[in-house]
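Sanity check

After download, print the first record. It should look like this:
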Amino acid sequence: MSQPATHLVKPPGGEVVPHRRGRAYGAFPDAMARGTLSRQLVLRTTLLVAIVAIVLSAITSLGIYQIQMQQLDQRLISSAGRTQPTSTGRGDPFGFGGIGVRIYSKGTTGAYETAGTGDLSDEALAQLAALPDITAPATVHIKDLGAYRVVVHTDSNSGVKVTSVFGLPLTEVVNTMTRQLIMAALLTLASILLAFFAVRSVVVRSLRPLNRLAATAQAVSNLELDRGEVTVPRVAAEDANPTSEVGRVGQAFNHMLDNVEGALAVRQQSETKLRQFVADASHELRNPLASIRGYSELTRRSRDELPEPTQHALSRIESESDRMSTLVEDLLLLARLDSGPNLDITRTDLTEIIVNAVSDAQVAGRDHLWRLSLPDEPVEAMADSHRLHQVVVNLLANARTHTPAGTEVTTSLSREGQWAVVSIHDNGPGIAPEVLPTVFERFTRAEASRYRKSGEKSTGLGLAIVQAVVGAHGGMASVASVPGDTTFTVRIPLAD
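Expected structure tokens:
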């Protein structure tokens, strides 16, 4: 089942209501809120700094490692050139846990004799004896000792293989590189964090003019531009300096606002003149219309003596003068409400108003089914009882006029939060979607969408008066309609 189409209207000078095309704006989001330009700039710049810092740390660490390895290799070659292991040498000939050993391998039995140290295990000696010639320092993992940089010289004499091994441990290099990597990681992390906060501060400061420009745009978007004189804010002079990109935008924005304010002023003057004209014309028309009505009523005494065409003409003059008087009174009321409503606001019982209005509607529309839905407790609002009664009467007359005989019209009263809610629902043919958005505008007629009884005439001002009176009370009026389901809803602030 389709949902009823809904249209809300805004009371003149009242609070913002849902029909406005814009939306209310709150405070600006935090600089790091998702989707903000500042967040993107900060994160992307910090990522770039992080990549550069990591690459520099990696290159620096690799360079230090290469330098230390070169220094270790030079010391190893230098020490091996001046040190010869002997059969009586014991321990560490180089210092720092270095080794210098000569291994004698006899035949193929694997038996060997050593000279230079007695600190190597048999497994380590067997591993070293199996090494080939290594003239340039190379890394060898020695059993039970770990990684060493070694040079090896082998020689065979009378079936005895002599293997001379010189080596220095990599422990110092590894320890130094470990400390270097830890320090590099800490410094890199610190530099990334420092860059993050520094970039965030710079970005926030740099975007302040843009944020102020956005604040001005938001303030303008929240102005009530549909009526009345409007003072449009401007971008500050320091943010409209054409030497910067944002300044050029601010300058153009101020120029646009100048044009907008000028156009609004011209429109306001035109509307003021038009309202004054309508008010003056309506006031001046009251007296001649009253005279026409009076003279047409005087003819009733001798109307039977006149020819039938003349009788019909006089009755039409009386009927049309009555209708024109109603139109003039409605126009005058709208003009008064536009220029500033003068309402007699008192504590008003809405229940009594609705009961009286529905009773009158029953007399005027006996071919309709009239229903009431009222709460057990009285509902009171701060309102002008006469004008509010006029609102309910107009809505009921609209339902009676635009729905066929047998239509059920239900009038209900309820409370919703701080509002007193009056609803008039009917199961008539509904309002066409193209008419719905303008149904509360002046001289809007719905002959194309709603049923109209023959002989019923409308000024097209009834719902406009509803909107104007409700708006003057600080309330709002709305309508929802699909075929077979039309509801007019009026909300008035409850009495304290």
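If your output differs, re-run the checksum step. Summary of this record's structure: The chain has three domains: 85-170, 228-340, 343-493.
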